[in-house]
Structures are given as structure tokens and as C-alpha cells.
Specification:
Elements lengths: L1 E5 L2 H10 L3 H6 L7 H10 L6 E8 L2 E12 L4 E8 L9 H15 L5 E6 L4 H9 L3 E6 L2 E7 L2
Parallel strand pairs: 4-5
Antiparallel strand pairs: 1-2, 2-3, 3-4, 5-7, 6-7
Length: 152
């Protein structure tokens, strides 16, 4: 059973481990960060209007996180990001459940009409998932493919 939850300190601790794994760090294009920087970022979450984040739990085990950043409420758009940090859950179809969840949350909770994302061309699994959910390639910037999906 998969659940989307408030991003809590438990997810923060797991994210530190996940985002320092060399493969996940590369695929998510995550820069280096200190524990202090991560804590400061976490403490700022409740004040961010243009950034929403959820933890992903499978059978009561935290396995990843996803969200929308750079939310523009005038344009009704935002940038999707997400990852499954627990590698033993890769390739199990959970990405599709997460995509359904982010699309629903983007429409119902955030009132968005468009999502876009950035993905490395070598991330074949993610590209396939995004295409499956109707994301279209619209450009290329800083070695990443930019894709978008009209929600409504």
C-alpha cells in the first residue's frame, strides 16, 4: 500500500541518505549539501508558497519524496520533481502511482493547469514514465530535457 504523507523529519533523515547515494544524486542532479543546510531548508518549508513536498511511504516504509517547485499561481504552473530513494522499490510500478498522485494534487490542491519537469537524457526509465503520462518534450537546457504536460 502506497501513501503520500506530510514531509516530516523522518523523510528528511532518509532523504539525506538517498540524495547522497551516487546514482540517485546523479539522476536527480542534486548538489552537495550539509546537514545544517538541509535542516535550514526543512525549517523553511511551512513558509514556502512556491514549493510543496510530500513523502512517499510503501507498507509503512519511507521510500521517497516528490513535489512541485517554482509554483507560479498566476500562470498556474509548476515544476515537478520526485524520486524513489529506496532502490529495492525501483522498477515495481510505483512511479506510475506517484505520477497519478502528483497530477491529482497539482490540480485539486494547488490549482495548477500545467506541470513541467527537467530530466537527464540518460534517465531512460524516468523519460519513459513521463511520456506514458503525457509529458511532451519542449526543449533542452543545461544538459536536461524539459518536458511539460497540460493538466486541464
Amino acid at each position: 500500500m502506497i501513501k503520500f504523507e506530510k514531509y516530516s523529519l523522518i523523510y528528511l533523515e532518509h532523504s539525506s541518505k538517498w540524495l547522497n547515494d551516487p546514482e540517485i544524486k546523479f539522476l536527480t542532479d542534486t548538489g552537495d549539501f550539509t546537514k545544517e543546510q538541509q535542516n535550514k531548508w526543512f525549517e523553511s518549508l511551512d513558509t514556502k508558497e512556491d514549493y510543496k513536498i510530500w513523502g512517499v511511504c510503501f507498507d509503512n516504509i519511507p521510500i521517497g519524496a516528490f513535489g512541485v517547485k517554482n509554483i507560479d499561481y498566476l500562470d498556474k504552473s509548476g515544476e515537478y520533481w520526485g524520486y524513489i530513494g529506496e532502490k529495492k522499490y525501483h522498477g515495481k510500478g510505483l512511479g506510475s502511482i506517484i505520477m497519478k498522485g502528483i497530477i491529482e494534487k497539482s490540480i485539486t490542491e494547488l490549482g495548477l493547469k500545467k506541470l513541467y519537469l527537467r530530466v537527464l537524457p540518460v534517465n531512460i526509465a524516468a523519460l519513459s514514465l513521463y511520456r506514458k503520462f503525457g509529458f511532451q518534450e519542449i526543449g533542452f537546457e543545461n544538459e536536461k530535457i524539459i518536458m511539460e504536460k497540460i493538466l486541464i
